[in-house]
Structure formats: C-alpha cells, structure tokens
C-alpha cells in the first residue's frame, strides 16, 4: 500500500495534526512457558506479535480508525527473553504520509520478581496503512513531533522510507529487465 492520491482526495482540506504523545502506548505482558522456543527462551514470533499488536493500537489511535500492517522494516532482537520476564512494548508514530505511518517500537524486559531496571531486548519499525470500511486507503492526520527526540525519529523514518521506496523501485526495474530479456521467474 502506498500514499497514492486521487483527484478527489487532493480537494479535501488538510486534517489537523496530532502530537506524538496523543497515540503513544505501552503494552505489557508476562512471558510464560507456552511462549518458549526449543532453546527455552521466548520465541521471537511471540515478541513480534506483541510488537505488531502495540504498533497497531498506536496506528489506529493516531489515524482515528482501522489501520493494517503494510510492512515491518526491521525487527532487531538484542537480548533473549526468558520465562517470567515482564515485557513492555512501547510504541509511537514516528512519521506520517498521506495514508500511511511509521510506528517505532521498543521492547523492554524485566524480571517479574526483581527490582532491577528494564533492559531493552528489541526494537522494530512497522509501516501501517489507514483503511476505510471497504479496505481502501484513507488519509491520516500528520504527526506533530513534540520533542527533539521525536523530531530525530521523524527524520530517521523519512530516511527509512526513502530506502524502502528505492529498494522497491530497483527490484521492479530488475524484474522488468529480466522479463524483457526472456527470463521467467
């Protein structure tokens, strides 16, 4: 899904922006035995689901309605998560386009029975597209960064978007070239 604009949309007045704090959220969950992989640590897919859940809540809040996951740019696992860890998934909108938005997510873990500070165990960037009742893209409010950190995140999100679009364009061009040369994939 892309930020394509139709003629009718270009005539629509601008939507008022929303500050980053308006949709920021934290989802917390305690990891249990049923969340583990064969190594006895929490399965990466379980953490990715929590990341997508938190990011989806933020995207829906910011856009004022349904939003769907369009892509996950990056998911980095920094430390293993163990049974009994209390996971905190913190998410916020970093950047908005016309119909899409990037949500940054940070995953922290702390032992449920210890009073030590949480440790960052992962991070991710997801792109969501706001959709209407028929599943078509709809406009989202611009995000208004409030702090210097928010402004940095917005600038970094724009760099990631530029790289995503360039990668997509390069792959499309390569496939078209190979098709013109008679290769069938």
From TrEMBL:
<feature type="compositionally biased region" description="Basic and acidic residues">
    <location>
        <begin position="145"/>
        <end position="159"/>
    </location>
</feature>
<dbReference type="GO" id="GO:0005829">
    <property type="term" value="C:cytosol"/>
</dbReference>
<dbReference type="InterPro" id="IPR029069">
    <property type="entry name" value="HotDog_dom_sf"/>
</dbReference>
<keyword id="KW-0378">Hydrolase</keyword>
<feature type="region of interest" description="Disordered">
    <location>
        <begin position="1"/>
        <end position="23"/>
    </location>
</feature>
<feature type="region of interest" description="Disordered">
    <location>
        <begin position="136"/>
        <end position="162"/>
    </location>
</feature>
<dbReference type="GO" id="GO:0052816">
    <property type="term" value="F:long-chain fatty acyl-CoA hydrolase activity"/>
</dbReference>
<dbReference type="GO" id="GO:0006637">
    <property type="term" value="P:acyl-CoA metabolic process"/>
</dbReference>
<dbReference type="InterPro" id="IPR033120">
    <property type="entry name" value="HOTDOG_ACOT"/>
</dbReference>
<feature type="domain" description="HotDog ACOT-type">
    <location>
        <begin position="21"/>
        <end position="134"/>
    </location>
</feature>
<dbReference type="InterPro" id="IPR040170">
    <property type="entry name" value="Cytosol_ACT"/>
</dbReference>
<comment type="similarity">
    <text>Belongs to the acyl coenzyme A hydrolase family.</text>
</comment>
<protein>
    <submittedName>
        <fullName>Acyl-CoA hydrolase</fullName>
    </submittedName>
</protein>
<dbReference type="Pfam" id="PF03061">
    <property type="entry name" value="4HBT"/>
</dbReference>
<dbReference type="InterPro" id="IPR006683">
    <property type="entry name" value="Thioestr_dom"/>
</dbReference>
């Amino acid at each position: 899904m892309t930020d394509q604009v139709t003629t009718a949309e270009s005539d629509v007045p601008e939507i008022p922006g929303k500050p980053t704090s308006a949709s920021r959220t934290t989802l917390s969950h305690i990891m249990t035995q049923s969340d583990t992989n064969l190594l006895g640590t929490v399965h990466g897919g379980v953490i990715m689901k929590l990341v997508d859940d938190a990011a989806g809540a933020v995207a829906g809040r910011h856009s004022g309605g349904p939003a769907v996951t369009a892509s996950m740019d990056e998911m980095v696992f920094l430390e293993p998560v163990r049974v009994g860890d209390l996971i905190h998934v913190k998410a916020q909108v970093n950047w908005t386009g016309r119909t899409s938005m990037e949500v940054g997510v940070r995953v922290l873990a702390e032992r449920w029975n210890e009073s030590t500070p949480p440790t960052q165990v992962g991070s991710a960037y997801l792109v969501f597209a706001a959709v209407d009742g028929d599943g078509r893209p709809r406009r989202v409010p611009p995000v208004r960064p409030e702090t210097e950190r928010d402004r940095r995140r917005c600038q970094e999100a724009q760099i990631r978007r530029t790289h995503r679009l360039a990668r997509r364009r390069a792959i499309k061009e390569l496939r078209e070239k190979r098709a013109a040369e008679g290769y069938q994939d």
